[in-house]
Design goal:
The chain has 12 helices and 8 strands. By secondary structure, the chain is α+β, with helices and mostly antiparallel strands. The protein has a 4-stranded mixed sheet, with helices on both faces. The chain has a two-stranded antiparallel sheet with strand order 3-4. A two-stranded antiparallel ribbon has the order 5-6.
Length: about 375
């Protein structure tokens, strides 16, 4: 399989380029953490505990260091990752394709610097090698749909973090990169989504012509929904899949099932998660988890108490959202399945990808949400 050479990209962060105060404190008070992935973020009792994102600068018209500018910023994503996918979908919804550049990593993880450690993570496609062998040593995953790093020429996402002076040791996507300051601006998907929906949409002139995913009149309700959907559903599926004790799994799957029942009830009374009139970011965030649910999470993360296809309202809601062009065009089920089933040998030793129930075909069927 193709692996990173371990040589970092050439650009370096200019001396004195600002970071947020939080980042400065982390840089000055903590020694670098060993490179790791989410599977390592487990407490002593077996519960999965996701670490917070570390680059949190906010691009806004009032931020003189990081104002919204066309062509200045570049988005790095994986089609497989639900957190990154919410950003790429919002980029398309808001018509930012010519405003913010895009690179897409290969779906299967590779060793990122094998001469130094055993870390496996996101890599960019190698034009000279049409497939990559998963780190399990089994199978071959094509480069189709991946886009190289045209900004820094990096081989791995890890190199972008090291160019930005990262000390967290977790090299996740999405990454929003500032080409002017040559650094990561932000790697928190919820904040990138809102920046695309707000400042970047205003820059592109699409803030009025496209649906506002975070309208003032629904902001409080959206925050309330996010407060329980994130820990029990978005992150809840990972709490199930990465649990290392029966008690941790039982707790997570119980909360997940309860929240899915709660969402089914909400959608029995209104068309969307926070409104009967329009989608919001609450719908986009939930969609990214549920579109992966029956194809991947039911098997891979053991969330098999009940598939989404068995919930009449949730399933029809999912159909309606999938049939929205900005979501359908940014949902890549091939990348989704290839990543999850081939990137963690501890969970799938031979990288065998199940056939699955054919979720995409089901989502193209007529929905009943306009009733």
């Amino acid at each position: 399989s193709t692996q990173s050479t371990g040589k970092y990209c050439q650009p370096t962060r200019p001396t004195g380029a600002p970071r947020s105060g939080e980042q400065e404190q982390q840089q000055s008070t903590h020694m670098p953490t060993q490179p790791h992935d989410s599977l390592k973020e487990t407490a002593a009792d077996g519960r999965f505990q996701r670490k917070d994102s570390t680059f949190r600068n906010i691009i806004h018209e009032t931020n003189l260091d990081f104002p919204p500018e066309s062509g200045r910023y570049h988005l790095y994503i994986s089609h497989a990752c639900p957190w990154a996918n919410r950003c790429s979908a919002t980029r398309v919804l808001k018509g930012l394709e010519e405003v913010v550049g895009l690179s897409v990593v290969h779906p299967t993880w590779q060793h990122t610097n094998p001469s130094e450690d055993k870390h496996a993570g996101w890599v960019f496609p190698d034009p000279d090698q049409p497939t990559l062998v998963p780190i399990s040593g089994h199978g071959a995953i094509p480069n189709t749909g991946a886009i190289p790093d045209t900004v820094n020429g990096c081989r791995t996402i890890r190199e972008l973090y090291q160019l930005s002076g990262d000390t967290s040791g977790k090299y996740s996507v999405p990454v929003l990169w500032d080409k002017q300051r040559q650094m990561i601006v932000n790697n928190e998907s919820s904040e990138i989504l809102r920046m695309f929906n707000g400042p970047f949409a205003r820059l592109a002139g699409t803030d009025k012509s496209t649906v506002d995913l975070f309208p003032d009149e629904l902001a409080e309700q959206i925050e309330k929904v996010n407060s329980w959907v994130y820990p029990t559903v978005n992150n809840g599926v990972y709490r199930c899949g990465f649990a290392k004790s029966q008690a941790a799994y039982d707790e997570a799957v119980g909360e997940l099932s309860g929240s899915l029942d709660r969402l089914e009830e909400i959608l029995s009374k209104q068309r969307y998660v926070t409104s009967n009139e329009q989608i919001t970011e609450a719908d986009v965030r939930l969609y990214m988890t549920l579109v992966r649910f029956d194809e991947v999470y039911v098997v891979y993360f053991k969330t098999n108490s009940r598939p989404i296809s068995s919930y009449p309202n949730l399933h029809n809601w999912l159909r309606e959202l999938y049939q929205m062009p900005f979501l359908q065009s940014t949902t890549n089920m091939e990348h989704i399945k290839a990543h999850y089933y081939t990137s963690h040998p501890i969970l799938n030793a031979y990288s065998v990808i199940p056939t699955g129930p054919g979720v995409v075909a089901e989502l193209l069927l007529p929905h009943d949400r306009d009733r």
